[in-house]
Design goal:
The chain has about 300 residues and is α+β, with helices and mostly antiparallel strands. The protein contains nine helices and 13 strands. The protein folds into two domains: about 130 residues, Gcn5-related N-acetyltransferase (GNAT) (Aminopeptidase, 3-Layer(aba) Sandwich), CATH 3.40.630; about 120 residues, Gcn5-related N-acetyltransferase (GNAT) (Aminopeptidase, 3-Layer(aba) Sandwich), CATH 3.40.630. The radius of gyration is 20 Å and the shape is elongated.
């Protein structure tokens, strides 16, 4: 390997970047969402993507978005020769120039590969720790739900859950693709990055990946999938307005989404979980992933 060259990564390099991610990322399906993670906008705007070249060969990629390091990945046969360190330095320098005083790993609300670094990726965590990155907070969890052979995840059960809600005056339905008033309602009640993810989920093909519960024309609950990591079948965000909790709306909208995901994937990954017992009760949990978040002061 010669001298590594670091430069901006253009969309025309997406195919080569995807191959790098397929080789480098053992714990995340980064190659499937390469364009979204390297070039896709977040709530605050587009990221900056960098590439590492050895001669004419792309051997590593990285993406910086606001105060988040979205990813750094180096082809396995190119590791240990400075490409990763040079990419990381490029991201740190760009963040400093933008006035950022602290960076975090991966967990950008709205557009994240994972809610941290998979704890199985001990080499990557140790590599960052040697470069002044430190662990913050408690590990996060994603859970996995079987959605194709699970007797608790069926179209019939989803219909029954919606019917139970209807008996109490609620309508559970798929959102319309142009239902922008939902984004306004969620922004007003919950805020954060959820409206950004919902906008993405509404554009899912072949049908919007959002289900809502309404009563008397007002939104009472919602659930979405494929708003982030599009094409991987991830669930979220989801929420129920406080006045309507405990009425089965969360279960009905969750089941509707899980049935959707089961049309394309054997499992659904629920990211950044909140009430774990809720998911276990409604659909059962078959596996779990845990993630570490690291941060560095610049």
């Amino acid at each position: 390997m010669g001298v590594v060259r670091i430069d901006a990564l253009a969309r025309t390099e997406l195919a080569a970047a995807t191959r790098v991610l397929a080789d480098a990322c053992a714990y995340d399906r980064a190659a499937t969402v390469a364009e979204e993670k390297l070039f896709g906008e977040g709530p605050g705007g587009p990221p900056r993507a960098f590439g590492a070249w050895d001669g004419g060969a792309l051997v590593g990629v990285a993406a910086l978005a606001e105060t988040w390091l979205r990813l750094v990945a180096v082809r396995r046969d190119a590791r240990g020769r400075g490409a990763g360190g040079a990419l990381l330095a490029a991201c740190v320098d760009a963040a400093r120039l933008a006035g950022v005083d602290r960076l975090r790993t991966l967990d950008q609300p709205g557009n994240y590969l994972a809610p941290g670094i998979d704890e199985r990726n001990a080499d990557a965590i140790a590599w960052l720790e040697r470069r002044a990155w430190t662990r913050i907070g408690e590990p996060r969890s994603n859970i996995l739900i079987d959605v194709q052979t699970n007797p608790r995840v069926t179209a019939e059960r989803a219909v029954a859950a919606a019917a139970a809600c209807a008996a109490h005056g609620y309508e559970v339905r798929r959102a319309r693709r142009d239902e922008t008033e939902l984004l306004d309602a969620v922004a007003g009640e919950f805020g954060g990055a959820w409206p950004f993810e919902l906008r993405s989920a509404l554009g899912h093909a072949p049908a919007p990946a959002v289900h809502v519960a309404t009563r008397d024309g007002a939104y009472c609950a919602f659930a979405a999938h494929d708003g982030n990591n599009r094409g991987l079948g991830w669930f979220g965000p989801t929420g129920t307005w406080p006045a309507h909790r405990g009425r089965g709306l969360g279960e009905a909208t969750l089941l509707a989404c899980l049935v959707d995901v089961g049309l394309e994937h054997p499992r659904c990954e629920v990211a950044w979980i909140g009430p774990r017992p809720f998911y276990d009760k409604v659909a059962g949990i078959v596996d779990e992933r845990r993630f570490i978040v690291l941060s560095r002061t610049l």
